[in-house]
Structures are given as structure tokens and as C-alpha cells.
Description:
Chain A is of the alpha/beta class and 280 residues long. Chain A has ten helices and five strands.
Amino acid sequence: xxxIGTIEIERLQxxxxxxxxxxxxxxxxxxxxxxxxxxxxxxILYLYEHFLKGTPEDNNRDYFFLSKGHAVAAxxxxxxxxxxxxxxxxxxxxxxxxxxxxxxxxxxxGVETPSGSLGHLPALxxxxxxxxxxxxxxxxxxxxxxxxxxxxxxxxxxxxxAQSQGLDNxxxxxxxxxxxxxMPTETLIPLEPLKDKFEAFGFSVSQIQGHNFSEISxxxxxxxxxxxxxxxxxxxxxxxxxxxxIDNRLDRWFMRISQEEAENLIAELECYHRQGxxxx
Amino acid sequence: xxxQLAVSYEEHLYNLIKDSPxxxxxxxxxxxxxRGLPPLLGERFIDTGISEQTLLGVAAGLAMRGRIPIVHAxxxxxxxxxxxxxxxxxxxxxxxxxxxASFTGLLSEANGPTHQAVEDIALMxxxxxxxxxxxxxxxxxxxxxxxxxxxxxxxxxRLNHLPCAVQHEPFSGIGKxxxxxxxxxxxxxxxxxxxxxxxxxxxxxxxLKELGYKVRIxxxxxxxxxxxxxxTEAALNSGLLVTVEDHYKQGALYTALCELLIEKxxxxxxxxxxxxxxxxxxxxxxxxxxxxxxxGEHIAHNIISKGGFNA
Lengths: 280, 311
């Protein structure tokens, strides 16, 4: 059973619409990784609305690490909705003075660590989770990776370590949109059967629809899935989710668009949203 | 003069950290310097297995939470396989992870080229905030360990367990070199060295003095930050400057000294004694030093014959 009802789901969907608007506006000011951000934004939104406890300054907070750093526009839009950062970041997008660029910057409140070079944060997140365990804290650690990012050997090293330490306070979320930078994951370096791989690495695994707030909520509410095993959530997503004209397209990973294009896409987004609210 | 500190690195490290729970000892299955610590430290000892990247990433995460991880690994592997993890996860964030690298420079002995860290200092010198500590022997290592571990910065330590070459002076701070008692004032030659070859540099100094040269010798201790004041003063008061190091010519002491001299507008000849763009012949340490022409008498001979002393 989902821990949230239809009214809350609709509220989250409306917030997700607003987050996607911000991402498109950022894309019209020098561009950003729209496809990737749209893929991850629903999960990030859910985490900040329902899961992550504590302020960025709270030493006993839950931690969120965006290992696929190029989706940072999704994170900044959610931090804006949470009131952690000002919406000005969009107007100042990519200004040399703004601290906003295409990958996470720790000068922005709420960003835990730089990322962008893929394959780094699973290990770092495991280190944080290990300290939380040793300190007797109940806080939890979420690290969101791309599926293409799983090409990096360092993530599998980190997974081995996490299971060796029984880090059940660590959850790896895979943004499984089946596309990496230039081609489908299964064409380049096939990952399937991915669930089996995680299980073989000692993880408890759940596979969900990554844009369905009901499923997202149900799964995160059940963490940890079992004692002394790290958790993996394979979130089946769609690159560019929310915009039928760009979704699932290899050439809409990064987008640099004009103001007019952004307005047209926002209109499409809102149209699609009106049709889709309450359906998921 | 040659004396050995009674306490080993391992014992000294344990004594320094045992009552400070923030310190953790870690390794990627390279326990050669810390074999006795796992049972003493309990959960504060973490072995990530053969995985330098994970070792560094986990250490960064622990440091973000306020821990001070001291990671032990083979120098060639941790600096090169782990380079980007040191740069992005540790150095750029100025996290106080201490990298204790073993078998660096000539200390890899007969392991062969895969294990030779002869460019590690060049790599670590590019790291913002990174303290680089290169003690000349275990006494030097132990004397400087406390100040390095307790600094707020990340640090790269070339572990060195050799018997001491001289009786060392206490440390006067991060980035401070050690002046070995000897000639002062205007000298013919100033020898700058650190690490494993410091002992040979000292021997060359004695030989040169016996030949009538006035020589000063400095144990750098730190390659970053550099003791600019002491080096500048020594350079201004010496005719020929010589660097002695078990590292490629590029990027370590020779380069750092030349950069400093240019910045200060000091014109001096600098003669580098080092490894020249090649791996050294794998053998036991004593044989490598002899074969590669790095014994004290070789160094003294080369300084006189090739150093451009009379140029």
C-alpha cells in the first residue's frame, strides 16, 4: 500500500510540473541536461517532500547524493520548491558569478558534494553511511546514479564494500531510463539482468516505475528492505518524461533552446500534465 | 650519530590516535605498515579490499562526517588509479584524509615498473590544499606525524621506515624544512633532498667537505607547502644548488625549486640528481642505489664533474 493518497499524489504532480518548467527555463538560458533532469526529477522531488529528514546544516540529517551530476537542474528546481535556494538561479543560470553550472556546486545550499565525473558517489555515500552506523545514527543515505553510470567499475567496487559492511542505511537508486549519452544502454554495454546483478552483489532490490509517486512512496516507505543488506531501487524512467515531443530521444539529453522554444515546450508540458494528472 | 627511534611508525601512530575516536585507519589491503592495528582499533580499522578508488571515496565520506581517515596503500596504485578520487572527492573539498603511501620511489625495490611511484609527488603537487610530507626515515616520519595528522588539510605521506640518516630536529610546522648542522653563511654548494636518498645526500656532503668545499644540506621534509623562506635564503647564499631525489626530474623538488627561483628572480645553476625519464632497475634498495649511481660518493663525484660547479 502506498503511504500517500491521491490528493498528495496530485500535489506532487503539480510540483513536478513546476520543477520541469524551471528546468526548461534554465535550458533557455544557455542549456542544461533536460532529458536527464526530467528522468530523475520525480524521484528527487519525492525524496525532498517525503523522505529526507533534517536541514542541510543538521549533522544528523539524511543525505542525498546526486551521482549523475549532470541532472543537477532537477536538484536545483526541487531545492527551489523546498525554499532552500532562490528561484534567481534560473535568471542567473551559467553566469560566472552565479555558482550555477552544469554540474553540482557545493556553494549551493543543499548540495552535499561535487559530482559529474561518474562513478564517484556510491563509495563516498558508503563512507557517510558507515559513519552514521558507527555513530549510532538512524539517518539514511540515498545515492542516485544513472544507468549508463553503471559502466564505471568503481560503482561495483563500492557496492561490494557496502554489502561487506552490511550498510542497510544506504540506498542506491538507479535512474533506469535505458539510454546513456549516445545510445541505448543495452546496445552499448548491456546491463540486464540488472536486478539479478544487484542481488548477486548482496543488495535487497526493488524495481519500480520511477515517475509513479504511489510506487515511489511505497518503496521508499519500506526501507530498509532487509537488515544488514544495502538497498537498490531500480527506477524505470523515461528520458525527457513529461514532454512527448522529446521523451526517449537520444538527441534530447542536453538541450540548449531559445526562449520561444522553451515557452512552446512549457505549453506542451502543461497540456500533457492536464491529461495525465491523476492517471499515474 | 646514527640512532634509531625505539618506537615504530605503527606503535607511534597507535599512540597518537588511540584516544581520539575521530581517527580511523584504513587500507586497500596493504597492511605492511599497520599489521598490529586491526585488533587494537576494532571498528576504527577498515579494509576495503583491493580497491583504491573505493578506499578514497569511503574515506571522503567518513571525512565529510568529521572523521580523519588515514588510508594506507601502495603509492603507485593510490596516486595513479585513485588520482581523480583524490582530486575531486578529497582535495577540492579540502577534506582531511591522510594518504599514507608505501613503497614510493626506490622503496618499491624489486617489485618492478608496475609498483614504482616515481611521479607521485608531481601528481600530488597539482592537488589544491594537499600537504606533501616526505620524511627521510622512520624517525623523521614519526617526528612529523602528529602535526600532519592534526592539520586540517588532506595530506600525502611517503611512508619511510628506513633507519635514520641523522639525528633529526623536532618539527617547527607544516611546510618547514630541516637544516642539518653544518656549514652556514656563504657556501659553495647547497644540497636539497628528502626521503630515501637523503642519507646518500648527507654522505655526499661529508665527502665534499673533506675535499674542501663549503656545503650546506637541507632536508625538505615537505614538498608542499615548500619552505620558501629557507630555500630562498639558502639559494641566495650558495654558488651551486643541487637537488637529490628518487623521483622523475619533472614535477617534484627540482621543478619546485626552479619555480621558486624564477619567481624570486634568483639566478642560480640547479643541478638535478634524480631518475631521468625511466624506471629504475628493480633490485634490493642497496643495489638499486649503487646501480643507478645514487650512492653518496657518486653524487659527490657528479656534483664536481657534471654539476657545472665551475661554469
